[in-house]
């Protein structure tokens, strides 16, 4: 089981904000870092030793990256399997193509979860237009329809309020395979992060409590205000899933907490996750340092929450206002920090950064970060 020590070189497939923050943590641990991304001005470019500009489907470029690195990881799950396999011929790829093959396709992902006994809400996979109306009817009429492949930050999914809206949803999602999910009676949306090393060591963070607006994460709180039994069950689900998938790296499990106390799995992400950005200020080990430790087969860090924290996402809408955001106001606020991703093209709905805040309680942290967001005009 190969261990990569500080001083070695880490490769990252993807150079967005998650790749950037992972690279910065790797730097702190003494690693060299290389990345690959189709955007020549991707956020990670400015903090790595080498950045290859290539499409994620360019298997030759993925192999070139891997030849220069001792281990390769990823910051986005849409890397084609052909590129992951090409890279794996030259360096360990963690998480593996086998994990991504399951996660990349919502239908396969849900079938795998069902096969392994993980709790799911009612769902169907639909591969033909004429089936969609039938399945929406069977699931109660009001449903979420999601593309099996692709989709991120709320894209690739449509809410249908009745079976009559199913044909339009099919066209809107590109007339290709979709997953249909029944509407649930939700109490909260949670996520739980588990790190697993190649030798099987695991570390699980407390659940985060998440709030979405327009299907994009607006704010997140760590630790989430949930009961001890719910937190323990969430951790058990994540740990069992990481072992069953044989994940090497991080796995985030998005969960639905129903009003009757039931926990159901929503989706999986085998990478750092927006809902755990608060770990940078809340925990002894951030999710980004933990990702580096896990994929390099180093001892995992403590997941202890030193102080509660919350984050609010900063979307490109702020930059489109006259004069842009006035950050000096929030930088003067006690307990608040600003995190910008180095993106140059601000557009509506694009994540440009986030605010974090700490407090003596989760509620105080959330109030502080919301006050900071309000000061920016959000």
From TrEMBL:
The answer to whether keyword Ligase applies is yes
UniProt subunit comment: Homodimer.
Give the pathway annotation: Purine metabolism; IMP biosynthesis via de novo pathway; 5-amino-1-(5-phospho-D-ribosyl)imidazole-4-carboxylate from 5-amino-1-(5-phospho-D-ribosyl)imidazole (N5-CAIR route): step 1/2
Q: What is this protein called?
A: N5-carboxyaminoimidazole ribonucleotide synthase
Classification via NCBIfam families:
PRK06019.1-5, purK
Keywords noted in UniProt:
ATP-binding, Ligase, Lyase, Nucleotide-binding, Purine biosynthesis
Identify the residues that the record assigns to the ATP-grasp domain, covering every copy: 110-296
UniProt superkingdom: Bacteria
Q: Which residues form a coiled coil?
A: none
Q: What is its EC number?
A: 6.3.4.18
The reactions it catalyses are: 5-amino-1-(5-phospho-beta-D-ribosyl)imidazole + hydrogencarbonate + ATP = 5-carboxyamino-1-(5-phospho-D-ribosyl)imidazole + ADP + phosphate + 2 H(+)
One cellular component GO annotation, for this chain's record? cytosol
Give the family from UniProt.
Belongs to the PurK/PurT family.
Question: Which residues are recorded as binding ATP?
Answer: 106, 146, 151-157, 181-184, 189, 212, 266-267
What GO biological process, any one, is recorded here?
A: 'de novo' IMP biosynthetic process
Organism of this sequence = Stigmatella aurantiaca (strain DW4/3-1)
InterPro entries tied to this protein = ATP-grasp, ATP-grasp_carboxylate-amine, ATP_grasp_subdomain_1, PreATP-grasp_dom_sf, PurK, PurK_C, PurT/PurK_preATP-grasp, Rudment_hybrid_motif
What GO molecular function annotation could you give as one example from this UniProt entry? Answer: ATP binding
Which function does this protein serve? Catalyzes the ATP-dependent conversion of 5-aminoimidazole ribonucleotide (AIR) and HCO(3)- to N5-carboxyaminoimidazole ribonucleotide (N5-CAIR).
